[in-house]
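Something for you to look into today, if you have time. Could you write out one complete protein record for me, on any chain you like? Leave the record below and I will have a look.
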Amino acid sequence: MWIKDFVTIVTPTYNRAYILNNCYECLKLQTNKSFTWMIIDDGSTDNTEELVGKWKNEQVVNIVYYKKDNGGKASALNMALDKVHTDYFVCLDSDDTFTPNAIELALNQLQEVKESSKFCGILALRNTVSGEVIGRKRIPSEVTESTIMDITDKYKIRSEFIQFYKTNVISQYRFPQLPREKFISPEYIAREINRKYKFKVSQDSLCICEYLHDGLTRNKRSVIKKNPKGYTLIKRQSYELAKGFIPKSKHAIMYIAGCILSRDKGCINNSPHKIMTVLYYPIGWLVCKIRFRNI
């Protein structure tokens, strides 16, 4: 039925049987079905496995299913990266959907950068259900290639992205596993990859994002409370990669706040910019007390 699968669409899921059908329905509608849908069940206790079995029997979408002990989204993605063998890799969250021609558009654009060692894949902004990009600010049309940090710091776009990666690039990376923590921002790997590669920027609408009451984004402060070391690690990364005095200063303050929150005694020694960290420490302490006063 499938001549060749070019893309592996990975969906980490935990007790999302009630919403996972939306992913399935959007994949059934794809104008190009040259993909495998890899579902990583992160220890669900609902009827996810039964539901996936029903879909596999329908043979409309090529599905592979793995179940593991609960360990968080990062561990689920690490598991997926050990199993992907297609040319390209993309993560579709359980509460997101693709537009009907997303795979077709993505594959066409990926072919343009396939032979270029400069690019790790393509990137697009996620859209709301109403069709607007999240944050309502688009990447300037003249920007055809970029890194995550340039988009957030240089172009002042606070949004979420959908990234289609070359598997031979992303397979070299993994999320860190932190003791007693289950979450670190998905952008961690993207930023690490951007040390060597850039994304080709797509202006197309590829992914629709809907925040649910039990989603990670809606429960951001709770997630930070449970995963302070992961939060600090991503803030240190932002601090290290930031370009320009103002962005670097902002990331310095949040890195310090993260260190205080996670009780990291190596805040200064582990800092990528030790002198700036010393100078900003009082501000970081104050921000931590105000922003995370309920944590």
Observations:
- The chain has a mean pLDDT of 94.
- The domain at 7-209 is CATH 3.90.550.10 (Spore Coat Polysaccharide Biosynthesis Protein SpsA; Chain A).
- The first helix runs from residue 17 to 28.
